[in-house]
């Protein structure tokens, strides 16, 4: 798909981060966009940013509140899209929505674990199930599923449990690779790509905490403080003498630095993804750190989960975690 002008695109998680930047760049190329998110306010901001650009006459940007882990809400999104976009077909499906959290089977609740898994994996599966009939009606189509470097390397360091997110992202990668054959046999005009970003500058850390805890405040609750303290200990931080306020500040700074000091911006990531779609690539690595870890895991898979492997990688790409 060399040109997005006049096409119709669906983006999940369009309120912030890569979803927002995908919307902005697609609109700038003359593509109609229908986005969903759990936050109407965030989507309104994305839409305003899109509309601030010089838009072709008649181009449509619509916003739809939906939790991608709930099939009925995605089906409502689809039905609203058909009505508001005045179309019975789409050309592009970006299954982008995701959250973190629920990393441990021991220290996190089952609810937190499954919340992460059901959004990061279930949202992709249900997104394809829901919108595939509209893709089939188009003359050409492309499904873009967001996995992660954690879809081929299940770690963020030896001292931190990361099971829910990694399990989901491995599922997304495997599903996407298998889906390519399914499409080739049954719908050859529809292609599929799997996106594997490294550290991208988004608000996923802050957003995930609020979704998992239900705490909309910027300040952590007592329960969240305890979890943050244990996470920092796992990363080698001596928290014994740290006050709750110090933990609070450290956690807020982590969310800020994850967004603002990332090696790849959300805008740069969106461009890499869209360029990959235009080039017909099925495997889209996003960021120098993603390419580096991909090469290292392939070269020495048996060493991939040792402390020395992580330390070497962290030093090579300049990762700052904690």
Fold and architecture overview:
This protein has 322 residues and is of the alpha/beta class. It folds into two domains: 8-202 and 265-317, Rossmann fold (3-Layer(aba) Sandwich), CATH 3.40.50.720; 217-261. It has helices at residues 17-28, 40-51, 71-84, 110-136, 163-186, 204-213, 222-234, 244-260, 266-278, 288-299, 307-317; strands spanning 8-12, 32-37, 61-65, 92-95, 141-146, 190-197, 200-201, 264-265, 283-286. The chain has a seven-stranded parallel sheet, sandwiched between helices. The chain has a two-stranded parallel sheet with strand order 7-8. Helix 5 links the parallel strand 5 and strand 6. Helix 1 (17-28) runs parallel beside helix 2. The longest helix is centred in the middle third of the chain and has 27 residues, at 110-136. It starts with 7 loop residues before the first strand and ends in a 5-residue tail after the last helix.
């Amino acid at each position: 798909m060399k040109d997005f002008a006049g096409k119709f695109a669906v983006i999940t998680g369009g309120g912030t981060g890569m979803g927002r930047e995908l919307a902005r760049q697609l609109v700038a190329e003359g593509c109609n966009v229908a986005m969903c998110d759990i936050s109407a306010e965030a989507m309104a901001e994305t839409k305003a940013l899109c509309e601030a650009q010089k838009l072709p006459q008649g181009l449509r940007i619509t916003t739809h509140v939906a939790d991608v882990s709930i099939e009925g809400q995605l089906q409502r999104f689809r039905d609203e899209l058909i009505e508001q976009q005045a179309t019975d077909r789409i050309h592009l499906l970006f299954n982008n929505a995701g959250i973190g959290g629920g990393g441990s089977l021991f220290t996190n609740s089952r609810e937190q674990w499954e919340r992460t898994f059901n959004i990061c994996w279930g949202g992709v599966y249900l997104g394809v199930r829901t919108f595939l009939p509209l893709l089939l009606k188009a003359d050409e189509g492309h499904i873009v599923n967001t996995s992660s470097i954690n879809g081929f390397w299940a770690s963020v360091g030896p001292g931190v449990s990361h099971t829910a997110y990694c399990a989901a992202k491995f599922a997304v990668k495997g599903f996407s690779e298998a889906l390519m054959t399914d499409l080739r046999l049954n719908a050859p005009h529809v292609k599929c790509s799997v996106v594997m970003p490294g550290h991208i500058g988004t608000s996923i850390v802050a957003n995930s905490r609020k979704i998992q805890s239900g705490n909309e405040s910027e300040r952590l609750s007592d329960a969240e403080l305890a979890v943050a303290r244990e996470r920092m200990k796992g990363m080698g931080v001596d928290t014994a003498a740290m006050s709750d306020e110090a933990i609070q500040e450290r956690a807020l700074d982590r969310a800020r630095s994850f967004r603002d000091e990332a090696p790849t911006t959300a805008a740069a990531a969106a461009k890499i993804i869209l360029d990959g779609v235009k080039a017909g690539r099925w495997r889209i690595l996003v960021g120098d750190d993603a390419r580096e870890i991909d090469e290292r895991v392939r070269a020495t898979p048996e060493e991939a989960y040792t402390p020395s492997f992580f330390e070497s990688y962290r030093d090579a790409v300049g990762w700052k975690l904690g």
